[in-house]
Specification:
Blueprint lengths: L1 E7 L6 H14 L3 E7 L3 H5 L4 E4 L7 H7 L5 E3 L2 H5 L3 H11 L3
Parallel strand pairs: 1-2, 1-3, 3-4
């Protein structure tokens, strides 16, 4: 089972998106875990992650997170999908990032 980690400034603003992604995963039968955390906790979150998606409001942290997690695929969540809380689109982006 894949573990997708969402990072934002405090770990709260991605909470609603996380719930939408979980619903999309359940609806499609995709087994995964999805969690949200603060970008300051990237290294800890990476210990169990298969990929990391960063909220667009902290996109400036992308290089820093990639340095902290060199063995993981890391990307920024699409701003439109994030704003619309499009869990299915962000889940698909995570799957693509993991090569699925």
């Amino acid at each position: 089972m894949k573990n997708i980690v969402l990072l934002c400034a405090q770990g709260m603003s991605t909470g609603m998106l996380m719930n939408k992604m979980r619903a999309a995963a359940k609806a499609s039968g995709y087994e995964c875990t999805i969690s949200a955390s603060s970008v300051s906790q990237a290294k800890t979150a990476a210990e169990t992650a298969d990929c990391i998606l960063i909220g667009p409001q902290v996109r400036y942290e992308l290089d820093n997170v990639r340095k902290q997690c060199p063995d993981l695929p890391v990307d920024v969540i699409d701003m439109v999908a994030y704003g619309r809380l499009d869990g299915a689109k962000v889940l698909a982006a995570a799957q693509k990032l993991m090569g699925e």
